[in-house]
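Sat 14:20. Reprocessing the chain from the morning session after the first attempt stalled halfway. Input below, unchanged.
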Amino acid sequence: MTVAPKRPKGPPLNAMRAFEAAARHVSFVSAAEELNVTPGAISQHVKSLEAWSEMPLFRRNAQGVVLTQAGQALVADFTAAFDGVANATRALRNLNPNPDFQIAALPSIAQLWLPKRLAKIRAQLPMINFSVTALETAPSLSRELFDLAIFFGESDGTANQISICSDDIVPVCSPVLLDRFANEGFDSLTLLHDQTWVDDWKTWCEAVEMPVKNVQNGPKFSLYSLAVEEAKAGAGALMGHLCLIDDLVACGELVIPKNTSCSTGKSLILQLPKVAQRRHETHQVAQMLI
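Finished this time. Tokens:
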């Protein structure tokens, strides 16, 4: 007679993955963004892990979550384990002789800055298929299968980051609005806003000491590229991020009514995976982008 006893069963892999991400970020919201699920799903996964271990791993409060002593003791092992899974997954993908080259970028960068540069790279590297994913927050390149990421941020000074240029801003508008601006200034123009960079006008006005009435008023757009199109169409003045709209200024589709720019304190940054995780084409592609 065959003996088939019931074997001890561990917790679900998804629950452990959710705990590791939440512990690393000390945030259910950030973990949810990384794993592309809801914060509620992260909470349920963590609860299931706590039920399995019969040990609280987080303390919940109105401000968010804090790791308990037991949870803190697990972080290093869980992080190393999922780093190993990520490395193995990347190695498996790279067995394909020609996997897609995956780029993550902020939507505005993916739409306004990247296409022209990517077209030149494709012409020189026709054997590589480039895929672009637009994300609002930068991914973890040690975990996700992206070969590089391009976002605005502050440089951490490591060799895995390349600062391409400073993020300088200045008002731009359609040439048809120049006469109105010359006669009445910014108070005569509708101010256009990007929802992500909703404080751009306030930042610029304070930096250049330019008083503008009702600086937070005006239409707001969920995509910067939409706001750019509205500015081109003469709908109002937009705070232009120069590295994104320099071509439009150069060809005259947008003009700078007051040529005084300021820095947001951030830079356009190209983020690379760790050297051991890079494909052999990664350095060449990065150099061609900058």
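The radius of gyration is 24 Å.
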